[in-house]
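Case study 2.
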Amino acid sequence: MVQETAIIVRQATQEDLAIVHEIEKVVNAAYRKEGGWTGESHLVTGLRMNADDLSKAILDTSDPLYLAIDTVQGRVVGTVQMRHDPEAPGEAEVGLLSVDHAYQSKGVGGKLVRMCMDEMRRLGNKKAVMHVLEVREELLAWYEKKLGFQRTGELFPFPMPELLIDKNINFIVLKKDL
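Prediction:
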């Protein structure tokens, strides 16, 4: 029998510091664990984010972190972060999108991104931006077909090239009008 789930998305708060290690496991499993269709362990080594960095993200209300919570199971099943670049007014980035492997392909990622874009709009942003590894065609296709993002033709260097298995991989910049 399939167990019901009720997923809510909410902004992380200081109280979530108590579960930062649970959040860390979700993020790193989504990016670095084998399995699922979003993993990057064949492309990037090391952790995606550690507990200290996640704690800072939780407390940074200018670039808020949002959590997807399975209210039936009482646990975090996904994350997304809205980041602002002071050099690009009117734009905000969708980042740190992660979904627990057991919840992938069930609408959680889309719900996280849509909520993040709604918040961007509410704050007066005109464009949403994403950076996706250029070799991740399945992710690029998902962002384009399911969420309406478009490739800009811009490439952005990976910020920690020492973690790349293939040092020639860059991010492709995607944008969407809000």
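The first helix runs from residue 20 to 32.
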